[in-house]
Inverse folding.
């Protein structure tokens, strides 16, 4: 038997929760929010540090506190929630199959929202050479073991990658009595937010070695040591700089990848830069009625921005349900010089639009430009741009010239 | 106290487990001594998972004969024992006239070995079969195939256990002594007394052989590094793709696992001693370059893991690789069957090797067949392979099927529970991985490993500090972060 709902939201983390609340407020009543865990909240359940909510709520909250505000609203608004339920497949015609201990359900939706978040890049994805001992964890797995499972995962810790979770785990492990020996970052600049470098590393005297990477892993049972090399400008290890560091734990914070297995099942095209769905300014994918927001679309710096993006998307979903379609967006967005990634990938050209941009490498005293037909239609001066910090550029609707493509570039 | 048995099998890899399973047809007390914490930690689980046709080995050799026989029976065996096997065929791809004549020689050798159906296919047919390959022609071997090497080895061991064989995991043999017509063996601080000893110790075959008094064995250890690619690419590799082999080396190949992961490898470097299973950067780079020339459809973003396997090769004084060694020396070591240099195609040939061992035993004593031997072993049913109707009824009967623990490989709690309570009593994280595919996918356990670690502790009553990733010393945790109130 197939149930029917107006909207199925896949994933009850910050994006899915914010989208559900906002849609309900926009008058959509038939919403089903599906979460694979026993409780809502997503990754924020394990982010017990503070610093969440400054933009969204004007105060600093822990992850669980931040997300509880949305969970309370979902409760209060009476939005239907399935927890302990894993979406098994999503078909191209919006039939969602869900597995749970209560059984299998198939749900036909008018709109499907992808809000599955992201996963961590692993040792295997980087193909770090060496043996495969116990004691090599991604930062999020380490965080889950320590904060949710109460398991101490190591005493002598090396961290590879200066992603935010890695730095936060450096602080967390130090607070719990472990010795964090060093953080090694292959790039010449930190990959996480500057505030985390100060608050998580500098304040605890944890050294950060830029332009260094792990080139070998030793240990048959538990990790015994790692080999670290300096890298040259092309990021190739310099063999003469090889040093061995004794440690029992290696934590990897080397990047996040939007989790789009279900989007691919549904036939949605992904963007090769963001690894999330290719979307228009309404956060609609190239398959009508399928939407994406949050880290499943592109990895954000701050959860506040995830919530805000999901709320904007919710407005479009409401419009889609009301009208049965959203306007066609003919203006293709082209990734130009020194741009790492940009969202959205298509715009209609009839509204003010914000572009969310990451640069490729560090750029100083530069401008982000949006160019159409050789004319700069929007520009923003930047003193400094780093890939870790997302920038926003607005284009006024009156500035669009025609329906030709837009190039976003840094000059 | 001594454990008195008829047969001790040293080494529970694919060959030792095949011997155990085949011997369990007879009325014998059998035990298997395995030094590792599970049965496929070494060569048996660290290979390409290809079921070979038998054309690549010298005519008249044991390798050729037992491989052809192993290939022939693999289909029936997979049904009996419930492991994944696909007779998908394989191509050896060439470009030059020199390679063509080399393939023709390989084909002639294959025909002499009794391999059926080999033929040269040209450009068009090759690209119909394997659209994504780079090459002008190929030798096609329709009977070659792919197998789940973990599932196969485990199924042999489990079926042996079902038929009365006892497995002693974590029991490394430390001494062997001949005493009063019986072999006295010490392993894991335990004494065993056996009429027969089978040395199927794989990488450790020389050590055991020396203990049996059969000295002078020369081995080299061929170290093979591999890269594992995402199973989204599996459909682009319908069958293993090999280059034209030289006399001693099969070359870098692009293969596919029964789960659809693409494998690039192996590197094949000969070492004097077994060192470790570390994968080297230079080999990763080399594999990428070689594989690209053959099959250019991957990028680094498709990598999910690397691994290394080691093959023990028997060599003569000049370093020339020899045949499989399957020997008995009635004068120096009576009732001891010595298996050495069991390298590729040992996985394919495992059951015929076991039957060779048994026929050697039968030449020396009468073996009585058991009436109640059960050749059938049930595998852990994969929920994700079932139809929606079957899935629905599985959850209705057991709600644990409705709890999806591993998202990327789609493994349910019910399957993991069955793996945790496996007949061999293997209890490490990778034992669960080998039995269910959990943690084998693109997130490498990023989502499921915490749950599996918890389930192992809860189900088996293991303390957190005793939970192992793989072998001795691979403890995952150092203790609790905080004591709970009241503790």
């Amino acid at each position: 038997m197939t149930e029917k709902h107006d909207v199925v939201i896949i994933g009850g983390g910050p994006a899915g929760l914010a989208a559900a609340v906002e849609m309900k407020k926009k008058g959509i009543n038939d919403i089903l929010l599906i979460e694979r865990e026993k409780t809502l909240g997503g990754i924020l359940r394990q982010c017990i540090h503070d610093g969440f909510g400054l933009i969204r709520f004007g105060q600093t909250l822990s992850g669980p506190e931040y997300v509880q505000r949305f969970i309370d609203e979902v409760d209060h608004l009476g939005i239907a929630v399935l927890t302990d339920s894993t979406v098994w497949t999503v078909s191209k015609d919006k039939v969602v199959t869900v597995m749970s201990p209560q059984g299998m359900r198939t749900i036909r939706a008018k709109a499907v929202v992808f809000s599955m978040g992201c996963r961590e890049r692993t040792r295997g994805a980087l193909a770090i050479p060496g043996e495969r001992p116990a004691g090599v964890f991604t930062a999020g797995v380490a965080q889950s073991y320590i904060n949710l499972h109460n398991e101490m995962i190591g005493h002598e810790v090396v961290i590879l990658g200066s992603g935010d979770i890695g730095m936060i785990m450096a602080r967390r492990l130090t607070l719990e009595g472990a010795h964090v020996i060093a953080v090694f970052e292959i790039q010449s600049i930190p990959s996480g937010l500057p505030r985390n470098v100060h608050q998580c590393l500098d304040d605890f005297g944890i050294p950060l070695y830029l332009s260094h990477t792990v080139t070998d892993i030793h240990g048959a049972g538990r990790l015994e040591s790692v080999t670290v090399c300096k890298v040259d400008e092309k990021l190739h290890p310099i063999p003469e700089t090889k040093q061995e560091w004794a440690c029992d734990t290696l934590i990897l914070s080397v990047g996040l990848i939007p989790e789009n297995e279900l989007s691919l099942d549904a036939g949605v095209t992904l963007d090769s830069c963001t690894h999330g769905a290719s979307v228009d300014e309404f956060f609609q994918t190239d398959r009508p009625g399928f939407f994406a927001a949050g880290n499943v679309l592109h990895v954000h710096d701050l959860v506040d921005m995830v919530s805000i993006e999901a709320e904007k998307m919710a407005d479009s979903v409401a419009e889609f349900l009301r009208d049965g379609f959203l306007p066609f967006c003919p203006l293709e967005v082209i990734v130009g010089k020194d741009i790492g990634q940009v969202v959205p990938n298509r715009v209609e050209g009839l509204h003010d639009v914000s572009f969310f941009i990451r640069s490729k490498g560090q750029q100083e005293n530069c401008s982000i430009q949006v160019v159409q037909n050789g004319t700069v239609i929007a520009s923003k001066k930047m003193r400094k741009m780093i890939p870790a910090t997302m920038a926003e550029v607005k284009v006024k609707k009156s500035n669009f010239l025609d329906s030709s493509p837009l190039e976003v570039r840094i000059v | 106290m001594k454990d008195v048995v008829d047969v001790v099998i040293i080494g529970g890899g694919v060959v030792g487990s095949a011997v155990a399973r085949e011997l369990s047809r007879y009325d014998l007390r059998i035990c298997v001594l395995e030094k590792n914490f599970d049965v496929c930690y070494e060569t048996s689980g660290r290979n390409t998972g290809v079921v070979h046709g038998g054309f690549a080995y010298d005519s008249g050799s044991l390798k050729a004969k037992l491989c052809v026989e192993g290939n022939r029976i693999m289909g029936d065996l997979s049904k009996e024992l419930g492991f994944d096997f696909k007779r998908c065929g394989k191509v050896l791809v060439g470009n030059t006239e020199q390679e063509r004549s080399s393939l023709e020689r390989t084909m002639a050798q294959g025909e002499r070995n009794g391999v059926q159906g080999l033929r040269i296919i040209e450009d068009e047919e090759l690209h119909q079969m394997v659209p994504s390959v780079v090459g002008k022609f190929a030798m096609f071997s329709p009977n070659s195939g792919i197998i789940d090497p973990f599932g196969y080895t485990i199924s042999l061991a489990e079926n042996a256990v079902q038929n009365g064989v006892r497995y002693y995991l974590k029991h490394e043999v430390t001494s062997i002594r001949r005493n009063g017509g019986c072999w006295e063996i010490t392993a894991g601080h335990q004494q065993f007394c056996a009429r027969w000893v089978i040395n199927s110790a794989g990488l450790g075959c020389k050590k055991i052989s020396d203990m049996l008094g059969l000295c002078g064995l020369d081995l080299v250890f061929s170290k093979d590094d591999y890269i594992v690619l995402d199973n989204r690419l599996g459909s682009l590799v319908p069958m293993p793709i090999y280059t034209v082999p030289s006399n001693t080396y099969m070359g870098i190949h692009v293969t596919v696992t029964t789960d659809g992961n693409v494998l690039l490898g192996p590197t094949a470097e000969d070492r004097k001693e077994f060192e470790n299973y570390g994968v080297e950067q230079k080999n990763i780079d080399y594999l990428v370059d070689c594989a690209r020339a053959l099959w250019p459809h991957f990028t680094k973003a498709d990598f999910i893991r690397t691994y290394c396997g080691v093959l023990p090769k028997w060599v003569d004084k000049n370093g020339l690789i020899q045949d499989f060694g399957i020997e008995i020396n009635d004068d120096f070591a009576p009732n001891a069957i010595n298996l050495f240099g069991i390298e590729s195609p040992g996985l394919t040939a495992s059951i015929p090797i076991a039957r060779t061992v048994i026929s050697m035993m039968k030449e020396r004593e009468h073996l009585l067949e058991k009436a109640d031997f059960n050749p059938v072993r049930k595998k852990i049913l994969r929920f994700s392979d079932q139809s929606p109707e079957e899935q629905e009824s599985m959850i209705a009967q057991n709600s644990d099927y409705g709890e999806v623990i591993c998202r990327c490989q789609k493994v349910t709690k019910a399957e993991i529970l069955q793996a945790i309570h496996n007949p061999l009593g293997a209890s490490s994280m990778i034992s669960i991985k080998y039995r269910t595919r959990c943690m084998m996918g693109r997130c490498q356990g990023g989502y499921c490993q915490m749950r599996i670690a918890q389930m192992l502790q809860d189900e088996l009553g293991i303390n957190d500090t005793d939970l192992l990733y793989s072998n001795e010393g691979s403890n995952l945790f150092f203790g609790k972060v905080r004591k709970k109130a009241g503790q």
Q: What stands out?
A: The radius of gyration of chain A is 22 Å.
